[in-house]
Amino acid sequence: MDARWDGKAAESAFGYFDYTIRALESQAAALQKLHEEYLLVAETVWHCAKATADILKGILDRLVVLGLTLMVAPFIASSGAGVFVSLGLGAFQCAKIISLWGEATQLMTKVQNVLHSSIGVMQSMANDPAFTTMKMPVIDYRHPGA
Q: Which terms are listed as keywords in the entry (predicted)?
């Protein structure tokens, strides 16, 4: 205890803050693990958002090509092969759009699995002895003289 303090107020303050420090130190490992899980979730969601944006850009590109193909189709219909080329290109674009949508769905499913896994880890930490060994004080520090 600090030599400049004496009496009941000093002992009360020392006891309260000493206990608080020990409680925080006892939870450091568990809080570090929780920190790592939160970082995993944040990084996963960020990468998912970036990948989803790229997939949506790909879908938009395919829709533009499909639209152009459909607009040009009547003009090249006079040639026999032009109709089939136009329809084939349109069908290819539709198939690619469906494929890209499937990729987005798979990506979301994988991200949901990571999130559910991380939530499970975080919930299991409630039973971790590091969190239950030494609880934080439940009341604020009250100066005995105040």
A: Membrane, Transmembrane, Transmembrane helix
Q: pTM of the entire structure? A: 0.65
In the structure encoding, which two tokens stand for residue 70, read together? 């459909």
Cβ-count burial 47-81 (b if 16+ within 10 Å, e if not):
ebeebeeebeebbeebeebbeebeeebeeeeeeee
Q: What is the pLDDT of residues 78-92, one digit of tens each?
A: 777 777 888 888 899
Domain ranges of the chain: 30-132
Residue type, 138: V
Cα→Cα distances 76→68, 106, 145, Å:
12, 38, 94
Q: Which long-range contacts (CB under 8 A, 24 or more apart) does 75-78 make?
A: none
